């Protein structure tokens, strides 16, 4: 059964538009489209870019406090439409309704943080009888925000809110798999923002590429795969666009030999399986000392057994389907290949019968590096559990990857865990938790997992350039 919803439109120059081409959006719990949304043409993108450039000077010159007041008004608007937006997230993304509501609340924490931050700071480097040197931060202009399908609302808020507070205008291009909630957000914010300060244009990958090439866009904030991130960076180079790239990860977690399986088992499980494993900084490789291997596997499997996979709108469901068909295929391929290579899928959960992109919650052991399930990013509900005997070796293996998004260490001895963690090459290292991503703490990737950060004052600065004023006295 499909649920019908009203299709939101593109927002260009403060108005809502349809398009000549429609983009069907699939409900992954039934594997069939539930709505069609307009796909912006390149001419419509040009219109949006022109409108954004026209809107930029007035928004830039609006006092920061006023900009923040308007951004805070977005929170009230979203809360007034919380139920509607949460259903849209569940329908297009698949996650359980309570988790969709949680995604929205997490997005609103961007408003709480950046909406209240003191942003008008001037750094004075010198002020004496010979002169004064000051550094300010200036907004960049038009930001192109290209987002992904695992947290469509949250990722859009991660980009839109700090970009606006810093004084930029924003054009958001959501993933073609999950454009609906972002388009609806675009419609809603027109009620509080001046025209063309936020515009949302849905479309396929080619529309994303057009944003990265467009001379009227000054910064790309991109969240997606490493492969696409490289294309974005190459394309942005032609116009020296600034880029923030939040890319993929293959996060390792190292359990130390003093960890108590009963204490860490549930947290280890959810580190890997929150949002059905479709989290950039999910735990994707778990290293466990040989002495604790069986006990940890058992404890993680015990938590896995509590998961109820099903359609996100159904009561009692705690995990949804895989979001899209190519992703399901990838998770299947990597898991089946690992089993063919001698891996043991020692836990496999239940999935509903019938259509929908269902994949059982799966734990695999008996694999090591060299197996693609370990070396690549599955981005789905499967976790390989590996064994080690020497912690130095585990650290070396954890670091032997081009990824460097997150990593974690699990132990009763927090100092020891922190010391091991300091040797892991990742943008974020967590102890006894994984992942933790908030508005107030910088988050970004080392190595090929990205460039730049989101969150915190560092994330705000990503939407600015430094401007120096140097006066000779
Ligand atoms: P993807 O890279 O295929 O797509 C992401 C977005 O880029 C979509 O909007 C898509 O339309 C657009 N796009 C595609 N080709 C483009 C191009 N040439 N130029 C500009 N835009 C283009 O992403 P995916 O593989 O569907 O998503 C999963 C990946 O995203 C995983 O690797 C995951 O780890 C990563 N991710 C990272 C973070 C983070 O914050 N680091 C968060 C979520 C997901």
How confident overall, as mean pLDDT?
97
Number of strands: 20
User: What fraction strand?
Assistant: 15-25%
CATH class of the largest domain: Alpha Beta
Shape: globular
Overall SS class: alpha/beta
Active site: 246
Protein name: Aldehyde dehydrogenase family protein
Family: Belongs to the aldehyde dehydrogenase family.
InterPro entries: Ald_DH/histidinol_DH, Ald_DH_C, Ald_DH_CS_CYS, Ald_DH_CS_GLU, Ald_DH_N, Aldehyde_DH_dom, LUC3-like
Q: Could you characterize the architecture of this molecule?
A:
- With 473 residues, this protein is α/β, with parallel strands linked by helices.
- The model has no long low-confidence stretch (mean pLDDT 97).
- It has 2 domains: 10-247 and 449-472, 3-Layer(aba) Sandwich (Aldehyde Dehydrogenase, Chain A, domain 1); 251-438, Aldehyde Dehydrogenase, Chain A, domain 2, CATH 3.40.309.10.
- Helices cover 38% and strands 23% of the residues.
- Strand 5 and strand 6 form a beta hairpin.
- It has helices at residues 42-61, 64-80, 82-93, 97-114, 152-165, 180-189, 205-213, 226-237, 261-273, 293-304, 325-340, 372-375, 391-399, 414-421, 456-461, and strands at residues 10-12, 15-17, 21-27, 32-39, 123-128, 131-139, 142-146, 169-173, 198-200, 219-223, 242-246, 251-255, 283-289, 344-348, 362-365, 382-388, 406-410, 428-431, 450-451, 464-472.
- Helix 3 packs antiparallel against helix 6 (180-189), helix 4 packs parallel to helix 5 and helix 9 (261-273) crosses helix 10.
- The chain is globular.
- Bound molecules: nicotinamide-adenine-dinucleotide.
- Residues 146-150, 173, 175-176, 205, 208-209, 212, 223-225, 228, 231-232, 246-249, 280, 377, 379, 405, 445, 450 line the site of nicotinamide-adenine-dinucleotide.
- It comes from Actinomycetospora aeridis.
- Keywords: Oxidoreductase.
- The active site is at 246.
